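Assess this today:

___
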Amino acid sequence: MVRPPAALYYGNRILDQDLFRINAESNQYDAWSYTSRQYICPGCGIRYRLAAFDDEASNFVYPIDELENDHQHFLLVANHGFENKETITIQNEEDVYQHFNNCEPGLADGIYHVTSDSNERLLNLVEILSRFSKSDTGFGKGAGQAAGIWRGECEAYLLIDDSLPVSYVATTSRSVIESESNGRFVLYEHDVESLFHKMNEEKPELNLKYYKELWMISDLFTMFDYRRKGYSRQLSEHVISEKGMNLADLPVTIPLTEGSMSLFRSLSTANLLGLMPEGTMSRRVSKSDAGVLLERF
């Protein structure tokens, strides 16, 4: 099994003291006991993972034990230049830091808007935080929002402070038809204005309302050691402003976590618009009743 703590380094600085806290490492049964350590390159956003099999955790190497068993996360195999056990490019900490030294400088402090057209470093960094978010909350499929960002369905905002990637927010847009009579919402991945006009003519009693492009906050993650320091709020406020979101009906995807619900309640002036891009349980609720959005549908 993997022994805690499992530190995460960004360059030569610790970004997270122990990845067990966000379920990005697991101590599930394994015949071998070892300590893991992960590293993110500030220059390209690639993530590496090494392991120390000695009791003192002093020698971190590619996680192959003395019987040639591979303990690497499948996702990260390619990051080490893995073709076979004899041709692993990144084999130890010395290789990791040699790569860092030969790579580009890290990002300057600020907020970065990340789309499918962004450079690979930004895409790699938001993918990492998206995967951490999924591990932390258990919500979302595969890579969480990362796959949607790569294919252009979602966008993201990345906050760099003190040269470290501390927080990210993902956004998703949909065309939405709302019935003000029954409170139902239907979300579409494409423009359905012609359908809206047709339905409005055929069923005027529904009092339909059309949103051609409604942006919603679809994911939010702040590194564990940087929570309760205002980063989530700062970045969310920036995203709300950039996307022109309505604070009276703040649009967010559901279900929410306890932490995100508390934040969105404080940001909204009246209601939360809890939306399910791939579901039918979207609803508008008063922010005081936002607890219903914690349910698993």
Summary: The first strand starts at residue 2 and ends at 10. The radius of gyration is 22 Å. The chain has two domains: 2-102, 110-294. The CA atoms of residues 172 and 188 lie 12 Å apart.
